[in-house]
Input
Amino acid sequence: MPAEPTPPHHARPAATPAQALAAMDDLIAASMVGQQEMAQRLGLNVTDLTCFGYVIQAGEDLLTAGDLATRVHVTTGAVTGILNRLERAGYVTRRPDPEDRRRVRVAAIPSAVARVHALYEPYYARLNALFAEYSPEETAVLTDWFARATGLANTYREELRLHDS
Output
């Protein structure tokens, strides 16, 4: 069901940080459940789908296993298992790194990319329509906020891990 239309940017109601946090929590919860459902539809688990998403995002600038481990915040050993599963499922292939034959680069298989795009494109079209309701300045603020909040989340998770060790 499409989202309710939002009034033009000049008519947006004021919101407190507490309201913004509550809205963010709702988005995160919906995204977590949605990612789980998307992963199941693709025959993957959420972590494997997340890694494949990073492989797609990298495009022709192929990632190494170490790059993926850093982005997903898992060990290189865990990434090896993830890549084994993705390879068996027909999502990725491993290619020798032309500059260092001891490393491999991860390439997405085009038919798998097409399956993921087919599943996500209708949702992303709706998100793009939602972004179109915001001014370029508002979209810049949203982009900045998403990037900075992601950095905060990653830093906090790392702090928790260091505290636990």
Observations:
- Residues 56 and 163 are 33 Å apart (CA to CA).
- The radius of gyration is 19 Å.
